[in-house]
Amino acid sequence: MNTALSVNLNKVALVRNSRPLSLNLPDVLAMGRLCLQAGAQGLTVHPRPDERHIRGDDVAPLSALVKAWTGCEYNIEGNPLHNLMDHVRAVRPDQATFVPDAMDQVTSDHGWDLRHTAQALQPCVDECLALGVRVSLFVDPDPEQMPLVKALGAQRIELYTEPYARAHGTAAQASCLARYRDAAQAAQALGLQVNAGHDLNLHNLTDFLQAVPGVAEVSIGHALMADALVMGYAPAVQAYLAAIARAQA
Asked: pTM for this one?
């Protein structure tokens, strides 16, 4: 399986929102188009309730953009117990990634503990499936969670990779990667597909994909935006595609 790159546009929107919205600079839609033109296989947005980056009125235009590109996917992530489901109903993205963010959370920092949250999530999973939307659950690298994901009816997991990013290049890297590999294999053994995201970058992405085979998609935004400040947005997208290709060579 070739790993798809989905570019998260949150940080583009964050920069735009730091100036009057009438200026619309940078243009999130134009940046999304640039990413797809550069070869990205999808776009990701996380429209939080406070709209500090992606706003509600960004969601539909980006959906229309992605639908015009053959073979590309639109991923909307967020907490389904807050505002995510309104966006899912409105545009029916290819994928809804459920993330256990609090209302005021700066960024995602843990996965679901389905032993305590499965009952609350079940109606949201069921509604997505009825709408024809794939469900991915943001989880820590814990093999014991995978049967609970399967029981809910979700089709994918997204492994929360910040702990790996922190361990990369240290003595803990190998043991950390082993946890991710074990979790991915446990998911795949149940027929679940595996995504990954959070703090993956040009320095650690290839190592991760080599150690954790079969990753269907990586979602990357913050690091890609940082690289784009140096090399430009399209070259940054192409650099990440090259890092993925090296892992799969």
From this structure: 0.95
Catalytic residue flag (residue 198): yes
Please write the tens of the pLDDT for every residue from 23-78. 899 999 999 999 999 999 999 999 999 999 999 999 999 999 999 999 999 999 99
Q: How far apart are CA 87 and CA 90, in angstroms?
A: 5
Active-site annotation holds for 77: yes
CA distances (Å), 214 to each of 39, 91, 156, 184, 203, in order?
20, 29, 12, 8, 20
CA distance 160 to 163: 8
Q: Which domains does the chain have, with CATH numbers?
A: 4-248 (3.20.20.70)
Question: How many residues are present in the chain?
Answer: 249
- Which residues on neighbouring strands pair with residue 4, listed in sequence order? 217
Q: Which of 77, 158, 168, 217 is catalytic?
A: 77
87 is catalytic: no
